[in-house]
Each structure stands twice: as structure tokens, then as C-alpha cells.
Write a structure and sequence with these properties.
Oxidized Rhodanese, domain 1; alpha/beta; 2 domains
């Protein structure tokens, strides 16, 4: 399955009641005051799109950001939003490539089979001359049966084993945070990286607000000496941009990709974690 769809493909399905469109835009990190992405959605969105708040649909019982909730909680929240697990789900963001892949990863990890990313997001939709609406959109309640695919998610103990076994770990944070030259945005957390990890800043996968082509992604991963035929785990600061790299790997042809949900926000706070710099 190609996870990317083009604006014309989605435009042809706007009247299909089984197609659910989600604006999954998270505010950019480090911008003060924070960008109100929900208000931007209300002002301007693809017709019929509903707002998918990643934070709202994450685990509220932990201090770690954006963690997956339980399957029961996710099923309840998706059903209330009007998202059926059998629906064709198309996710976009208001600009760039940042958080839509995380929303797709959440839905896929809980069992939704048909989840796509709108290539180029809202900007590409508008550039194609397609209609834009304003106002809040609500869908009638649906039924979402959530079942967590535990093979898609790594925890701290599993990552520790991967480090000891010299498995492939790709870090989506900036090169400066990876090396320890720049601070982490979360107070009290050291920058640096896991032993043996490879720096693959998610921004290197993006060009002109879209993911790069399959060929360019394959070339990028090859330049980082990533073996697409071997297991790979992605990580970042909080599990969001790790999903961008995971999506890039999927497009490039990797078949065994997992995501460390706790990512650096968890790893760097664990006293037994080894942090390297440079």
C-alpha cells in the first residue's frame, strides 16, 4: 500500500461517507506563543475534515508526551470522533511534514488498515484549486475496534537490548541535539544520543513541504548506511517525528520498522541510560 495520496485522489472521494479526513496538525515545537492549530483548522480546512488532536488522544496517565493510550481508551475516543476502523482515513497537516505521520502511525498501530497521508497537505490541496471550508465539523459516532499491535512499538527495555545487540536505531532529532551541541527543548533533559544510533533528522526527508520521492529516500538511507532489509527502530524527542522517519522507511521499502514510543523524553531521564555526545 502506498501511504501517500494526491489531492485529486481525495477530491474524487469527498462525497464518500466511508472516507474520513483528519487535520492532525500539532503546533511547531519551540514557537512562542504556541501556534493555535485548532483555530487555524476552524478557519480553513478541507471540506468535511475533523480535527485530530494528537495530545488529546494520547495517554494522560503518564508525564511522557504523546504516548499511546490503552486500546480501550483509543477505541472510545475514535468512535466518539466518528472514525470507524473500516473507514478510508486520509490525514493531512496545515503545512509541512511533522505530525500527520504520527497520527497515521497511531491509527495503524491500533488496527485501522486503510490510513493515508495527503501528499503536500493543505497547501497542496489549495494549490490545486480545490475547495476550502471553515467552521467546526462533527461526524456521527462510529465503531472503532482497537487492538494494539505490540510488534510495532518498542519500550525502554527493548531499546536497551537493541543497543546491546548493535541493532539499527535511527534518531529523527536535529543533528545538533543528537551530538549534544544544542539543548533539548524539554527542561532538565540532556541532549546527546543512544550508543550506536544513527542521526537521520526528519527534515532531511522533506522537500518543499512533501516527503521526498522513494528513490531519494532510498538514497538518503543508503548514505546513512541503513540496511532496509534488517530491523529498524526509529526514535526522536517525543515519538512524533520518529513517525516521519518510519513513514520514509516504509516508502523506501523497509518491512521491519518499529517506533520507540517513549523516545528521548523517556530515555534521557532513565538513570541507567547511557548518553553519548559528539
Amino acid at each position: 500500500m502506498n501511504p501517500l495520496v494526491e489531492p485529486a485522489w481525495l477530491a474524487a472521494r469527498l462525497q464518500d461517507s466511508n472516507t474520513v479526513i483528519l487535520d492532525a496538525t500539532l503546533p511547531p515545537v519551540g514557537v512562542t506563543p504556541p501556534v493555535d492549530t485548532h483555530s487555524r483548522y476552524v478557519a480553513r480546512h478541507i471540506p468535511g475534515a475533523i480535527f485530530f488532536d494528537i495530545d488529546q488522544h494520547s495517554d494522560h496517565t503518564t508525564s511522557l508526551p504523546h504516548m499511546l493510550p490503552t486500546a480501550e481508551v483509543f477505541a472510545q475516543s475514535m468512535s466518539a470522533l466518528g472514525i470507524a476502523d473500516s473507514a478510508t482515513i486520509v490525514i493531512y497537516e496545515q503545512e509541512g511534514v511533522f505530525s500527520a505521520p504520527r497520527a497515521r502511525w497511531m491509527l495503524r498501530t491500533f488496527g485501522a488498515p486503510n490510513v493515508y497521508i495527503l501528499n503536500g497537505g493543505l497547501n497542496a490541496w489549495a494549490a490545486a484549486g480545490l475547495p476550502i471550508e471553515s467552521g467546526e465539523v462533527h461526524r456521527p459516532a462510529a465503531t472503532f475496534h482497537a487492538a494494539l499491535n505490540r510488534d510495532a512499538v518498542k519500550d525502554f527495555a527493548q531499546v536497551q537490548r537493541m543497543i546491546s545487540e548493535h541493532k539499527q536505531i535511527l534518531d529523527a532529532r536535529s543533528a545538533a541535539r543528537f551530538s549534544g551541541a544544542a539543548p533539548e527543548p524539554r527542561a532538565g533533559i540532556s541532549s546527546g544520543h543512544m550508543p550506536g544510533a544513527t542521526s537521520v533528522p526528519f527534515t532531511e526527508l522533506v522537500e518543499a513541504g512533501r516527503l521526498k520521492s522513494r528513490e531519494d529516500l532510498r538514497d538518503l538511507f543508503a548514505s546513512k548506511h541503513v540496511d532496509l532489509q534488517q530491523p529498524i527502530t526509529t526514535t526522536c524527542g517525543s515519538g512524533v517525528t520518529a513517525a516521519v522517519v518510519a513513514l520514509g522507511l516504509e516508502i523506501a521499502g523497509a518491512t521491519d520498522v518499529t517506533l520507540y514510543d517513549g523516545s528521548w523524553a523517556e530515555y534521557a531521564q532513565r538513570p541507567e541510560a547511557v548518553i553519548e555526545k559528539g
